[in-house]
Amino acid sequence: MKIVRFSPLQRSGASRLGILLGDGAKVLDVGECGLKPPAAPNDAYDLDGSYLRELLALVSRGAYRSYAVIDRAQVRLLAPIERPGKVICVGLNYRDHAAESKLPVPEQPVIFTKFPSCVIGPDEEIVLPPDSQKVDYEAELAFVVGRRASQIDVEDALDHVLGYTCVNDVSARDFQFQDVQWTRGKSCDTFCPMGEAIVTTDELRDPHNLRIRLHLNGATLQDSRTDQLVFGVPQILSFLSRSFTLEPGDVIATGTPPGVGFARKPPVFLKGGDEVIVEIEGVGRLRNTVRA
Ligand code: MG
To answer: For residues 209 and 229, what is the distance between their CA atoms, to the nearest angstrom?
Structure first.
């Protein structure tokens, strides 16, 4: 199943939860399916909650009215989670990317965060901060937590994942390297493009053998596979859960492969008018434009 959020082009109002149907040309408007709304927005991502359980059952039975199905062309897709409780990232998690960064392959996951307020959706603009001249892209496979997770063993970790989505871990390298830590460089407004959909684990069983690419203005600048991850999804989830509780709707970006802009010769940084696309096999495609 592919979970999205959207707003209808013809109507204003709050964003709506949807399911991409078939080849993605149609969207099921979950708000028209007669389910009792979740108490809090991120309860919609809770595998232990009644809302998601009922939704999964309804979709698998095809038990919805035709008026709840909208043409994809009639909606604007948003980030599949409007405001995650946490956005956690893993740094240096591809061996080759650690090498191009001239840093050793880490012995345990290197963790940092992005503010949830910097999440944007597909086709939204990445806005370059006026004080940075070195804004970079990072294509990343992200997983979405679907079940409260505290002190979880590696072998139980995947039971706590709802699904996968694309993230662009946009990074102001000048801020990142000037500051002692990475918060400013990673959390500027609009620096967490996410989407288009959350592909659930029943549809995508193995996240560790997927082609992952980044295209900038049509040129492919990152092209790797998730089998190059140093720490896989279960290891990351288990590691994090030993320090803090993960909650439904939390998003964890698993790191970026080689080919980022600052390590290229000559370096490549984002500029106004650019088009940047993260593409992950079986997960989808996330397109954004850049505004100076
Ligand atoms: Mg990253």
So the answer is: 10
d(C-alpha 138, C-alpha 269), whole Å? 11
- Cα–Cα distance for residue pair 228/249, rounded to 1 Å: 26
Question: How many A from CA of 230 to the centre of ligand 1?
Answer: 13
Instruction: Kindly list the domain boundaries of the chain, sorted by start residue.
Output: 2-78, 87-291
**The two structure tokens encoding residue 58:** 């309804």
| Per-chain residues with Cβ under 5 A from ion ligand 1 | 138, 169, 256
The Å distance, Cα 6 to ligand 1 centre, comes to 26
The Cα–Cα gap between 51 and 84 comes to: 18
Confidence (pLDDT) at 144: 98
Peptide bond into 196 cis (omega under 30): yes
Ligand 1 centre and the CA of 51: distance in Å? 32
d(CA 30, CA 22): 15
| pTM score, whole prediction | 0.96
The set of residues, in sequence order, having a beta carbon less than 8 Å from that of 119 and lying 6+ positions away, is: 79, 81, 82, 83, 84, 87, 192, 193, 194
Q: Which amino acid is at 217?
A: N
Q: Residue 236 has what DSSP assignment? A: H
Q: How far apart are CA 256 and CA 251, in angstroms?
A: 15
Buried b (16+ CB within 10 A) or exposed e, 77-89: bbbbbbebbbbbb
pLDDT along the chain (292 residues), means of 10: 93 87 94 92 96 94 92 96 97 86 90 98 98 98 98 98 98 95 96 98 97 98 96 98 98 97 96 98 98 97
Fold of 87-291: Fumarylacetoacetate hydrolase; domain 2 (3.90.850)
